[in-house]
Amino acid sequence: MGKDKKRIQQNRAKKNARLAARKAQRKRQQHRMEGSLFAQLGFTRGQIEHAPIHQVWANREFFELGIGSVFVSRILPDGHLIIGVFLVDVYCLGIKDAFLSALSPREFQEELLAKARLSEPLHEVSPAYARKLIEGSIAYASNLGLEPHDDYEKASVVLGDIDASACQETFVFGHKGKPFYAQGPNHTDSQALAIVTQLRERCGLDGFEFMLESDLVDRPDDEDDQTDLRDL
């Protein structure tokens, strides 16, 4: 029994080491890609971080819907805008997606924002509101053992010198006092089940809620479904 326990601990240590190595490799790749993007724009990260804020938009119903977009735009010296777009899951995952884009002011209004308004209610917010919401969601997800999307670090350049403490708004993450994970179209069943497993380990079976697209876990109250949940 002692040998089995030691073997499990060794395997877990090896797994953690592999995960740490892969994470470090991803970060190196991100830094290379980031440098290439900034070189294409002709500006350094520092210049972008301190460029004047243009507009900041966010979903008006984040805590009713559980998920929504935040758009943070800055004016570059050549007149173009650099825009960080963040898909924020305030119920569980934090930053589900993020990307950085350079557009003209017209393209930003008539293409990016206009398209977003077709699917979600947007309103203009302060830069401090956006940063506090984004970083608060990341902190909440981090406590659950969940990391932001790989492209967050690159997109976060637009947050630059924004002071989140200037926002007096209070954000309460989760849903009805618990994390609530809803599988989206970009998560495979295996990815979704991995997240559910992580939440179960961190929160306990009754410490979170979830819903998978496959309807494996719609969580009705009957006993059979509760048994299925314990088998995940």
Which structural class do you get from the secondary structure elements? alpha+beta
Strand order of the main beta sheet, please?
4-3-2-1-5
Give Rg in angstroms.
20 Å
Shape: elongated
Q: Could you tell me the strand content as a percent range?
A: 15-25%
Q: What is the average per-residue confidence, as pLDDT, rounded to a whole number?
A: 84
Order of helices and strands: HHEHEEEHEHHEHEH
Largest sheet: 5 strands, antiparallel
- Total DSSP helices: 8
User: What is the CA–CA distance across the termini?
Assistant: 26 Å
Helix content: 40-55%
Low-confidence stretches: 24-33, 216-230
Q: Would you give an account of this structure?
A:
The protein has 8 helices and 7 strands; from the N terminus they run ααβαβββαβααβαβα. The strands form 2 sheets. A 5-stranded antiparallel sheet has the order 4-3-2-1-5. A two-stranded parallel sheet has the order 6-7. Strand 3 (81-89) and strand 4 (94-103) form a beta hairpin. The protein has helices spanning 2-41, 45-49, 62-65, 105-117, 127-143, 152-155, 189-203, 223-231, and strands at residues 53-59, 67-75, 81-89, 94-103, 122-124, 180-182, 209-211. With 232 residues, it is an alpha+beta fold.
Can you give me a brief rundown of this structure?
With 232 residues, this protein is of the alpha+beta class. The strands form two sheets. The protein has a five-stranded antiparallel β-sheet.
